[in-house]
Amino acid sequence: MAAADRETTCAQVRERMGRIQGSLSPELIERMTDDRARGWQNPFRTPDAAALRREDRPGDAASIWRPAFVRDVEKIIHTPAYNRYAGKTQVFSFRSNDDLSRRGLHVQLVARIARDIGYALGLNGDLIEAIGLGHDLGHTPFGHAGERCLNEVFREHTGRWFFHNVHSVRVLDRLYGRNLTLQTLDGCLTHNGEYEQQVFYLSGLSGFAEFDETVERCYTDGGVAVGHLRPMTLEGCVVRISDIIAYVGRDRQDAIAAGLLDEDAFEDGLGGAYNSWILEHASADIIEHSYGKDHIEMSSDLFAEIRRAKAENYAKIYRSSGIEGERAEELARAFSLMYERCLADLRLRDESSYIFRHHIFRIERALAYYRRTYDWQLDLDQTVVDYIASMTDGYFTELASRWFPEIQFPRRTYINE
Hints:
The chain is an all-alpha fold. It has 18 helices and 2 strands. It has helices at about 5-20, 25-35, 70-75, 80-85, 105-120, 125-135, 145-160, 165-175, 180-190, 210-220, 225, 235-255, 275-290, 300-320, 325-350, 355-370, 380-390, 395-405; strands at about 200, 295. Helix 5 (about 105-120) packs antiparallel against helix 6 and helix 7 packs antiparallel against helix 17 (about 380-390).
């Protein structure tokens, strides 16, 4: 882009950003203050009493000090998959900088942002937290680059699609048998921040049968089905938009901290400070336009800005500076070889293989607690996907190096003299 054209574009971006409010209007503050003084409750809030579970387990019953969605939060954070967040990439996989975001920080940021917005709107903060912390449990190692690699090989073998949001549901609902509420599972399924919208209306979902049909369509129809997902709760809608808010600015900070981009690389001119700007302005805008409504909404200016910022991130970070631009072919080959090796070991029923020792046996032990079984032999391809998606970046690279020494992953050096 020519310097003059870039200057014009930057000026237009800043002009639009200047129209997006950074605080609540005095009128809304007065209304909210009056509502709270009167004990107002949002009629569109998801009450704890509405929680639906697949199984009526006595141990999952809500109590006065552990309501239904609090139990969901606790179920989520005690899964092995939650612990592995800390070892999974957000964007930058092979960077020797411990300050760069990992998947575990991302889900906490999403939950925090969503709780702030939800609190102002009078929504159920416990449900928001459960969805926020659980929404990425199905993510692969190496972020969205790993997700694409696993999807490609899974599609080649089965014709079915892999999406991390769909797999998050499988992790919680099937692999670990946590008996989560429908509302939390639905929020995890429909969270995808890759599909931005100006207005989020509810789906009207009311039961597990319809939910299971929706999940199956995601496997068979791929992006066509995933792109049309809508949350059943306002809490799920808030988490969905918070997912974008959480990463669009933070990923810029990480790209700058990693030395991949300069502070002046972005059209808005804020560099890493864009993160604090979007957190403040997006939250205020969404609260202003959503308070008391049966949907979640933002201004046209904020919607345009989020789309612009996200597109700029894709052009300057995800497709060039992140792992996709650096080692995409090498990573795809590693995923393909890993998939074939695991599938072969399952067919041979080689119980000395890591897929048995580190995955199947562990899942079987976890499910036995709930008197359930892991029918891994019914769909070997799905079992391979379950295993690979569960890996951290470090586990994947170490196993790939053992099995396929011809693949050379970069060595991380943390201290340079």
